[in-house]
Write a structure and sequence with these properties.
The protein has 2 domains: about 80 residues, Roll (Ubiquitin-like (UB roll)); about 130 residues, Rossmann fold. The protein starts with a helix and ends with a strand. The protein is of the alpha/beta class. The protein contains 6 helices and 12 strands. It has a 9-stranded mixed beta sheet with strand order 6-5-4-7-8-9-10-11-12. A 3-stranded mixed beta sheet has the order 1-3-2, covered by helices on one side. A hairpin with a 4-residue loop joins strand 5 and strand 6. The radius of gyration is 29 Å and the shape is elongated. Keywords: Cell cycle, Cell division, Membrane, Transmembrane, Transmembrane helix.
Length: about 240
């Protein structure tokens, strides 16, 4: 019996420990939340406000202090936030101190389509509604977006967003029956791109033309720059 006594004491101690832990955890789960804290990851230009996120998190409760930890479904809250048209991803958790915290990653618009209806194209090629809180400074796309051309337009505006020269000089894309046109920021000519095939090579030709014309101080002499044809740049003077 004496040999078993140390083992019995260990078992009793473990039972007491887990009982106290379960009791403490149960009390902790029944405690009300203290506050809500929202953090926006990345770009701080807000297409959805902290107040709007708070309302989605607390939902029908008038005050966060009315909500207990055990009454929360964190996965459901993440789905609710992620289903918002301005949100790309959301992580929701409860801190040790009892605060409901949300880290929100917004969708990123690359271009704004203008016309009868106006909306953005985001960095995944999906259509994104405009926000009442912030207007993104992105190139404008003129023309109708369809299921047939959406991927092509996305490919072009993504290239603009990823290239420093294009970001500085291109302010718009025009959808036309003959293909796509690029609008320059400060130069009085349009660039005929054609379709989106060989896009990087066409952009390389545009850069070479631009640098040469800039050096020759002849940029203001052109009305059209055509990149459609092979390794040529066909220019039309005013």
């Amino acid at each position: 019996m004496k040999k078993l006594k140390p083992y019995i004491q260990i078992v009793v101690a473990l039972v007491l420990f887990f009982s106290l832990f379960a009791f403490s955890d149960g009390r902790n789960q029944r405690r009300n939340l203290k506050d809500v804290e929202v953090t926006f990851a990345g770009d701080q230009n807000l297409f959805i406000t902290e107040e709007a996120v708070n309302k989605l998190l607390v939902q029908s409760h008038e005050n966060v202090t009315n909500v207990t930890k055990e009454g929360l479904d964190l996965n459901k809250l993440e789905r609710i936030l992620s289903n918002n048209q301005m949100v790309k991803k959301a992580d929701v958790y409860v801190s040790v101190s009892g605060e409901l915290k949300a880290i929100v990653q917004q969708r990123k618009p690359l271009a704004r389509v203008v016309g009868k209806s106006s909306f953005y194209i985001d960095d995944e090629g999906e259509l994104m509604p405009l926000s009442q809180y912030h207007s993104a400074r992105v190139p404008l796309v003129e023309g109708k977006i369809t299921a047939d051309n959406q991927k092509s337009v996305f490919k072009i505006v993504r290239e603009i967003a990823q290239d420093d020269f294009l970001k500085e000089n291109i302010v718009g894309v025009k959808i036309a029956p003959k293909g796509y046109f690029l609008r320059m920021r400060s130069d009085d000519f349009e660039v005929m791109l054609g379709d989106e095939t060989n896009l990087k090579y066409k952009i390389k030709k545009l850069k070479a033309f631009y640098q040469k014309a800039l050096k020759d101080k002849s940029l203001d002499q052109y009305s059209w720059v055509n990149l459609k044809y092979g390794n040529q740049v066909v220019c039309t003077k005013k």
